Amino acid sequence: MPHTDPSPTDHVYNAAGGFIFTSSRIESPATERPSAVLLLSACGRPFELLLGPRTLWLQAAVVRPRVRRGLRARGVALVSVNVHPTHAAYRSFLSLRGDGVLPLPRGAFTQLDAELAAAGAGALDRTQGVALFTRLVDTTHALLPSQLAPHPDRAALLAWLQQHPQASLGELAAGVGVSYHRMSHLFTDAVGLPFRGWCSFERMVRAARAFDATDTLTGIAHEAGYTDSAHLSRTWQRVYGLTPSSLRNGNSVQALS
Known about the structure:
By secondary structure, this protein is an alpha+beta fold. It has 10 helices and 9 strands.
């Protein structure tokens, strides 16, 4: 089972369109995320990226959405930047070919070393964390082999989904004015995820927004659309390598948002 061993040095900085996670000890045998991910060593020591039987030793790399991979970064100050499907640059990360992993030159991020160290220490406030997220994504985006223009229907679809977050694909098709069959293809092309994958992502976002609430984990799970707290926990461990309880416990992971 994938896991991260959370410590008091773990921090999360939330931003519109994604988040930054920092840790000095991660061991995650297998996760598969709807988000694109930038993995960056803040200390210069390499981390291990596990792709099936292969192990890559890297200091910086971007991973395409929905690529199954493991991670080992014991004693490495690691920064993980997750770029959600709602981010304007998301579709460009889908252009990565092959195994979906693109090693990046660590030197491209040298100008951000001071901010990266501060993020790992939990020394950034929300505004600074958001600014660092933006600079990291912009720097990474410029290094991608293809910077895709936004799909012409993407903004309209995301706006409709924001107003109707639990709509079915049929309701979305009717709202936009196209057939069900056309919408199933249009959605994947425009957003970058199949509709079912989007629904799973949206449930996780709803749950995450409630993690700092006083409600029980069972209550949060039901409100977000999971059958129970066990369903929520299994999903989060599979996707992020963390349990919701560790994220709700400020002694394990400190959320700065």
